[in-house]
Design brief:
3 domains, globular, three-stranded antiparallel β-sheet, 7 helices, 8 strands
Length: 250
């Protein structure tokens, strides 16, 4: 107030707001707005600096090596007992999304574009301690991104969901990857997803665990049909240990 820096929120109060935001953002905004609490941006920045916070990449920004490591860690978390068999399959399909660019505050990025401009980082990298022109510089940066005609808007997001046969009291489903793209875009996404699953199972098996990748369930569109047919043929001649099918709901 009056040109002076306001005193910081107590640590426990900030922890409370961070917990509230992680549980339900609408509730956080309602309570923080009425109780003069911290802004959403400040809470997200505070969460980033907190110890033991997950450093996993955004689901739309993971490379193959990232996805392999994340899947391996999840399998170990799901089944700590090395002697138990873990069998899993992959489901790959696309879901329609609104054709609009948005800001992801948690990862400081602009999302909503199709590959390869689907995750533009550094959109909000100005620090609160900078001079009063910080907001103006951020506005100019965002305006340039929003007016960039080379950014094709995504029509859909193709998602890789891992399904486990036995998960105990934990969820049998895990979203590992997502690819924003134009409508029915042809790519190597199916092949990459299968290779990720196979490599994660192989590395865990080599370490002494019993992990098996069984099958891919895919969409029925033409760009996915070719992958399914090739995978079935490769499986039948013994070249690969997993199968691919077309989802019966398609």
């Amino acid at each position: 107030m009056n040109g002076k820096v306001n005193s910081p929120f107590p640590k426990r109060l900030m922890d409370f707001y961070c917990l509230l935001e992680s549980y339900d953002r609408k509730t956080f905004q309602l309570i923080a707005g009425n109780l003069h609490g911290p802004s959403l941006r400040n809470v997200l920045k505070h969460s980033k600096k907190s110890k033991n916070l997950s450093t996993e990449k955004a689901v739309v920004d993971r490379k193959k090596e990232d996805a392999i490591k994340i899947l391996m860690n999840h399998i170990v978390h799901l089944q700590p007992n090395k002697d138990e068999v873990v069998a899993f399959s992959a489901a790959i399909d696309a879901s329609k999304v609104a054709r609009v660019l948005q800001i992801n505050h948690g990862f400081n990025a602009v999302v909503g574009g199709a590959q390869p401009k689907h995750f533009i980082v550094g959109a909000l990298d100005e620090d609160d301690t900078q001079d009063g022109d910080a907001h103006a510089r951020m506005a100019e940066k965002l305006k340039a991104i929003l007016n960039d005609k080379s950014i094709a808007l995504a029509d859909e997001v193709k998602v890789l969901v891992i399904s486990f046969q036995k998960s105990g009291h934990k969820s049998p489903y895990y979203i590992l990857l997502a690819r924003p793209q134009t409508n029915n875009e042809s790519s190597r996404y199916n092949e990459d997803c299968a290779e990720i699953c196979l490599e994660a199972a192989k590395q865990l098996t080599d370490s002494g665990r019993k992990v098996f990748f069984l099958c891919c369930a895919n969409d029925g569109v033409s760009c996915d049909k070719d992958f399914v047919v090739k995978t079935i043929i490769s499986f039948m001649i013994g070249a690969i240990p997993y199968l691919a099918t077309t989802d019966i709901n398609q």
